[in-house]
From TrEMBL, chain A:
The keyword Membrane applies. Belongs to the CPA3 antiporters (TC 2.A.63) subunit E family. This is Na+/H+ antiporter subunit E. It comes from Rhodovibrio sodomensis. InterPro entries: Cation_antiport_E (IPR002758). Residues 163-181 have a biased composition (Basic and acidic residues). It is found in: Cell membrane.
From TrEMBL, chain B:
This is Cation:proton antiporter. Coiled coil: none annotated. It comes from the Bacteria. InterPro entries: MrpF/PhaF-like. The chain crosses the membrane at residues 13-31, 43-62, 68-88.
UniProtKB/TrEMBL annotation, chain C:
The chain crosses the membrane at residues 6-28, 40-59, 65-86. It comes from Rhodovibrio sodomensis. Keywords: Membrane, Transmembrane, Transmembrane helix. InterPro entries: PhaG_MnhG_YufB. It comes from the Bacteria. This is Na+/H+ antiporter subunit G.
Amino acid sequence: MSHNPPQQNAVSDAETVEVPRTAQLNVFALNVVLALAWSLTTGAFSLLNLTVGFVLAYLALWLPWKMWGDDTYFRRPWRILRLMLIFVWELIASATTVAMLVLTPGLKFRSAILAVPLDVKHDLGVTLFANLISLTPGTLSLDVSDDRGTLYVHAMDTEEAEAEKRDMKETFEDPIRKALQ
Amino acid sequence: MNPFSEVTSFLDGAVAVAVVLIGVSLLLTFVRLIKGPSLADRVVALDLLTVLAMGVIGLRVIATGDVLYLEIALALGLVAFLATVFFARLIETRGRELDHGYDTMDRSKER
Amino acid sequence: MHGVSEIVAGVLILIGSFFVFVAAIGILRMPDVYVRMHAATKAGTLGSGLLLLAVAVQADELDVVLRAVAAVLFLIATTPVAAHLLGRASYISGVPLWRGTKLDELQGKYDRDTRALAGRLPDDAPHEPGRRS
């Protein structure tokens, strides 16, 4: 199951090791200072104007920081935004699927409780995985085994149990593992 | 000619349609709340009732511009979430003693 | 400008109330708690979320927008958790699955007294629901 992650870890360690935590904080502080400066020069300290200043400072800082190499701070908001968009998209897709099953006359679906083996052992990873599963079409996570090895999922409409499990792992677990590294 | 002269009436129409739909939804959910048959069914219905109430509050804010209601929606959501958590706890610990309303299947011998 | 946001809000309201309605039909029509939970959590959350989003779209003040968005985020964050807790509790307390359930791999995995949950063993054969091993 989890025999190759060491190699992946080594690669990502090499990439992230030079980014000290304080560097990101400094960019943030600079960003806030510039936002304040913007409000000062435009002469309005409203929440809206501060936000505008923050966004402008963010964009203005992005370019030089990118040239110096470390733009983790600038990429993070986009990653978070992307994750949120995935969440919202999945919710829309799943609600549509459920709506179709609900509105079809007769009960022409077969449900099941599936045991999905987990490769992420990290608590946050398991939580994310379980919640994403709950928002995807036709699946609802029920519980995680005590050894964090198995996630039990209720599927509303199953055709092929094993294929469904593989699908879940491929669409969510790999991205989550990469995002958490 | 203002191309958006009927706009306000479109929004009002949408709100009217939504009020009817949510009203019927509340009734249907109440039927499930009464029918059960298990306590878990009723809790699911109760949870949906509060979610529906949050939607009604959203409509109310749009229709009247009464912004204060939004805070009530947030508080209602919080209370409903906590209620569901505690109901889940109750069902988990005492569920076997409580009446499920089902007699088709006996799981008590299962291991 | 104002007209456009009102049209968008109107469309959001229509779609939102449709999904809320579907959730209510689902909770009445679906055969067991677990499937009913699918309808209530997914369609219900999306429906009410869209209605609150409509508030954010047609509002004029920033704080109204923020409050409405906060309500939507709260809804999205809490419903999967609530559904998980309720699903787990229903299963432990023995609420039965409907007869269209073709596979129950959770069967027999809970320790009856401690409620500890075992993982899936490699040599586990899938159980037929309703049949005891």
